[in-house]
Description:
The complex is a heterodimer of chains A (about 260) and B (about 300). Chain A is an all-alpha fold. Chain A has one domain. Helix content of chain A is about 80%, strand content about 0%. Chain A is built from 13 helices and no strands. In chain A, α5 runs antiparallel to α10. The two termini of chain A are about 35 Å apart. Chain B folds into two domains: about 210 residues, Rossmann fold; about 80 residues, YebC, transcriptional regulation domain (Alpha-Beta Plaits). Chain B has a six-stranded mixed sheet with strand order 6-7-8-3-9-10, sandwiched between helices. A four-stranded antiparallel sheet of chain B has the order 2-1-4-5, covered by helices on one side. In chain B, strands 12-13-11-14 form a four-stranded antiparallel sheet. Chain B is elongated and about 75 Å long. At the A-B interface, α1, α6 and α13 of A face α2, α3 and α5 of B.
Amino acid sequence: MDKIITIISKEWAEVFKNKLVFFSVLFLPLILAALPLGMLFAFSRIEGMETELNDPEIMKLAGQMCVGLNPMDCSLVYTLNLFVLMFMILPVAIPVTIAAYSIVGEKMTRSLEPLLATPITTVELLTAKIIAAVVPAIAATWVAFGIFFIGAWLLTPPAVFAAFFKPHWLLAIFVVAPLLTILATCIAVIVSSRVTDPRVAEQLSALVILPLILLVVGQSMGLILIDEQLMFLLGGIVLALDVILLYLAIRLFQRETILTRWK
Amino acid sequence: MINTSNLTKTFGEHAAVDRLTLDIADGEVFGFLGPNGAGKTTTIRMLTCLIAPTSGSARVLDYEVGRDDQQIRRNVGILTETPGMYDRLSAYRNLSIFARLYEVEKVDFQVEKYLKLLGLWERRNDPVGEFSKGMRQKLAIGRALLHEPRVLFLDEPTSALDPEASRLVHDFIGELKGRGRTIFLCTHNLDEADRLCDRVAVFKTHLRVVDTPGRLRQQVYGRQVVFHLAGPAETFLPIVQALPFVKAAEAKEDKLILSLDDPETHNPDIVRALVGAGAGIQFVGELRYSLEDVYLQLMKEEPATA
């Protein structure tokens, strides 16, 4: 356990001195929290916005989201629901940057060989690397979601907030998002232990965002209704994938291959 | 301390290390010499359990490579070919990370000890990225020693270092030798090997020779004595060639170069014979070949297929 803590603290000390990684962890969540709140604030202040939002078409797209609401309130609920989905993309985007630099960065600076020469096991090393990438991503997501949540509560009418705030979003943010973070990190670790450029690792790992974008598009077009059932299903699938990918990450982390195929 | 038996590593069709058999004693400084691509780093990687042998066996400190890898990693230190430090972190942080990974009990004590010993204590809080090559190399040596390993593997410890930093590293290796550490030294620097090593192995995929630097010189060149004469040496060549213990003789301007098995015994007889023949002897000395000469000679003799 001591070795895992040592590697985690090393990763954080090193990674957060990398400006690119630091800004992606800090600014991406802040922007994502600030953007919808800014929009909500603008909706309540800009003259004529009520007319703009009072669009009956939105009722068709929103479907079950807006039962009993007028088109204006429905627009706000629809917007909030779209943004909250972004908080599921966030924990996928952040760890990819950290994890991609984690292995490939060690390869590039040639620090992996002395590290692998110590009595640290592959399981300990990868556990530490995964935790080091997952924890900041989840923490940043939760903080950003907290800001968004409080802001939404303050800036929207009670009926809108009540229509938006459903238990499945708590499930999404506090259960599915962390599982997605682990999934993205495992993919990044697998990819980065097989490539020699962190940018390649980052780009390949980022492909895991694509299914989530489909979810966003599906919901925005009224094709998918996000509810508890869907979240349980999604959580179950991601959990199973996590187990498989954790196993694969450890199996595919071939010390010898990594050391001898360095260019 | 380190024993290998037919240790072999192949990458695809290519043999990097071919049937290496070695016995290295406790406290010995063992030089492993060979050209680039000879398989020296591969050998170190096998002995430090970073890569697995294809066949053969190896024991380090009575632990078997492939079976007791964690024990071996706990008890050996390695200086890799490139220092591989965490550049954004301080020297102190770099060493304390590795001290913890090596399960050192008194982390702060050991880190301070080696930073002071290597003259880096004043720079302990500076990011390693700001260090010179020599300082990084010293820090990497400190890292390899934090857990007080009984066996130390050094891969090109002075490559890319200036003479001053090299001298410091040599002195440090000398100190470690004095403290009874077993050191496996891979190097291109033959002068370094000559000065530091008890024995050297010349290696190029397979083991060419192993012996002390002195005996290797003798094996390759024999012992040669040069007699500086007051005048052309050619005249006196037949005199020395007639002596039964002279294995070979050559005259070069005013010098006679003789190959002998036992110069200490036969030099007086040669001097008497030359003086008797009217030669004026200015001085006599043993012709000393460098380890580099020996190495290059051995490499020339290497079969093309090896």
